[in-house]
Sequence to fold (329 residues):
Amino acid sequence: MDILAFSWCGIIAFGVIMYVILGGFDLGIGIMSIFFKNEKERDLLVSAILPVWDGNQTWLVFGGAALYGAFPLAFSAILPLMYIPILIMVIALLFRGVSFEFRLKAIKTKRFWEICIFLGSVFATVAQGLILGTFVQGFNLSPNAGTIAQWFNPFGIACALALICGYVLLGANFLIIKTTGKLQEKNYEISSKVQYLIVAGFIMVSVWSPFLDPSIMQRWFNRANMPYLAMLPAMTLFLLMAHRFALKRKYEYLPFWSAIGMFLMCYLGFIISSYPYIVPREITYSAAAADRSSLLFMLVGVCIMMPPLLYYTYYSYKIFRGKVTQIGY
Fold:
């Protein structure tokens, strides 16, 4: 095992899951916000993420830059196939960020910018779901393989819909922590309904994935692996029950953390299915890695920059903790 390359796989995986969790709930809130009829409630929803949404995107940039530097072969193989969904995601995130700023100052066009936030959130999430679906089912790098069909297919669309539900669940649970009164009650209701959609999504992906590639089927249904791998669905079920229990008891923090746990279990399942490929079923992480001197040089940079980035993330949530009761920052 190439320890340096494996370490960089871990660093990129950490950056991706940090974005999925932190960027996921603010995209989920953006998707939810359009369905709240009360303007003051929409103001409070947007105010809940205004101080932190831009910092959440840092992890997306970090993950993309790390992939480019540490695994240039993988980056050059993935990017041409995924140009369209990546471009849609980037444009949607930029459009969404601009909409936040204009909405703060708008009077007559305020509703227009709220719709823009909703559309930006939806398109960014759908693009991420299509990318996720492609990674789960694997790439085909042969010259005769189609491009659009690799990411725009029934499984990719199903993953996009499941990701929308997952982000909405994270968003509703985050708002349970940040809001009070009737608005908090609405988010309890949303979370209690969406959790069942998440169950359906988990079952769909779990049943569908093994049939996408024989190697996935062999790994998950190997008798030697099953006692260990069975712990993942068991833990997911436990977290789901904890989530349901927390909503019934009106706990504030447990729904959010149990939802994060479910995302982590799914992410771990994806890693198990894909290992040792960084371009699933085509290029392994060791084959795609840059030379050792480059990896070592960048690792020193990460060791210097990662602690400030982690502290910035922690401090931004610490300083803006508590309930949202006023509009704006």
